[in-house]
Amino acid sequence: MKPYKELAGQTLIYGLGTIVPRVLNFLLTPLYTYTLIESEFGVITYLYSYVAFFMVLLTFGMETTFFRFSSLNEKNKFVFGNAFSSLLFTSILFLSIALTFKNSIASLINYQNNSILIVYLAFIIFFDVLTAIPLAKLRQDNRAKFFAIIRTSNVFINIGLNLFFFVICKDSGNDILNSLYNEEIGVGYAFISNLVASFFTFIVLIPIIFKIKISINLVLFKQMFKYAFPLVIVGFAGMINEVADKIFLIHLTPSELIPLKQVGIYGANYKLAVLMTIFIQMFKYAAEPFFFKHSLHKDAKEIYSKVMTYFVIFCLFIFLLVTLYIDIFKLLIGENYRVGLSIVPIVLFANIFLGIYYNLSVWYKINNLTKFGAYISLIGVSITVTLNFLLIPVIGYLGSALATLACYFTMVIVSYFIGRKIYRIEYQVKRLIIYIFFTIGIYMIYSFISNESYLLNTLLASILIVLFLFVVAKVEVISIRSVKNFMFKN
Predict the structure, then answer these.
(1) How does pLDDT run across 195-254, given as a tens digit for each residue?
(2) What is the pTM of this model?
(3) Gap between the terminal Cα atoms of the chain
């Protein structure tokens, strides 16, 4: 059980640096949806979609590459400098272009009257790119506590400033505080708050950055770039699959439905899958170095298979937790946004398949076959783009949710069958399929029986979740004693 305990422990440690900030950051959703109209929240959702794209483009897979090449001890001292120096170059180049052409960029995305937002976004991206490798260095050095403190502090600053501007200053009734809020800036305060938080992270990491020798070892860099380039395609395609739906909604939603309003509703309900996205992010942080570390272990394939099983079980538990207690979770968004609750189960299952894909990707990462990750991601992109174009004009944001689900499901299928030929891992496929259909069955029972009674719905949800856990415990032969041993024995 030692490898699984190690992964669970690392997931928990990085979870403290991921789950706390993500949960805190999620608190911005009720803040925005209770204080901003749908179209204003749509602006935030829409513009941050572009931030996600540029973060992937400008970091170009260098975090994963850093982990991979740091395992080569003889080159360790050059890897950090190479990785950071390359991102320093791309971030400075990006910032220069963005500031020079801010008006043209603003016009291109239909914000010609508010180019200052482009400036805010450019600096946010600049500082976030610069801190990517120093933060990865903390993970690589197992400085999880410091990593957690930095990530959590960043979010506290962001939330605190948002509360200050949108609650204290905007609606305080105090003339002095009200004077600090400018209606013309409006949603711009959300980006100002983020910028201050990103700058704080940069300042804190300066001691680590100053220790880096700013130079490029060309021989090593060519090897790193060869490994990283397919990951750029993987990451960029991943961002298209993850956030392009918000951009498509702006351009494909009929004008009479007010596209920004639809993006706001979609974005708010998408956020209700936060528990799933947090867990997957926690797992990803821990799993990537874990998979590389255990790649030469004699039982590596068995370990990967078991990890997949436990991962899927936990994801299905989260799915039931959110969907069966939706009467509670829906309170996290404003009432006007709840018309989009129908997408929540779809988004949750889409994220489950994304997590499964992360598990499956071990075969091409540890065998230096990242080009296959690029191919599979491009297949996903083609599905995302095609289905968004076909479905949004007909069924709106529901079409975007279905496109996301179809994309990740297809990527799982393709990766699984290619992986079996190159690096065959005997996953417990039949058992996982049974678990998935069992979960869907539980959800359908709840949907059919639930009524207007909040108390009865909560009771029914609790019974069904206990049933799920009982069945899993029986099938996996999990006892209370084994759980205690797993948690408390070395």
Answers:
(1) 999 999 999 999 888 877 777 777 777 878 887 777 777 777 777 877 788 889 988 888
(2) 0.77
(3) 9
Contact 169, 180 (CB under 8 A): yes
CB distance 167 to 31 below 8 Å: yes
Q: How confident is residue 112, by pLDDT bands cut at 50, 70 and 90?
A: low
Measured CA to CA, the distance from residue 7 to residue 2 in angstroms comes to 9
Q: How far apart are CA 99 and CA 122, in angstroms?
A: 8
- Name the amino acid, one letter, at 49: S
* pLDDT tens digit sequence for 238-288: 778 777 888 899 888 888 888 888 989 998 999 888 778 888 877 877 776
- Three-class DSSP category at 17: helix
Cβ count within 10 A of residue 356: 24
User: What is the crossing angle of helices 28-35 and 2-26, to 10°?
Assistant: 20
Residue 221: count other Cβ atoms within 10 Å of its Cβ. Answer: 19
Q: Which of 61, 19, 44, 120 is nearest to 365 (CA)?
A: 61
CA distance 188 to 183: 10
- Domain containing 263: what range? 2-488
Lowest-pLDDT range of 44-53, 222-231, 477-486 = 477-486
As for how many domains the chain has, the answer is 1
Q: Contact, 84 vs 133, CB < 8 A?
A: yes
Measuring CA to CA, which residue among 60, 35, 34, 32 is closest to residue 47? 32
Please tell me which residue, 89 or 483, carries the higher pLDDT value.
89
* Residue 165: DSSP 8-state: I
- Scan for tokens 């003339």, then name that residue: 175
Q: Poorest-confidence range of 83-92, 113-122, 205-214, 455-464?
A: 205-214
Q: Which of 275, 267, 277, 278 has its CA nearest to residue 329?
A: 275
Cα–Cα separations (whole angstroms), residue 308 to 7, 293, 416, 432, 439: 12, 17, 12, 9, 17
Q: How many helices (H) and strands (E) does the chain have?
A: 25, 0
Q: Do 131 and 200 contact (CB within 8 A), yes or no?
A: no
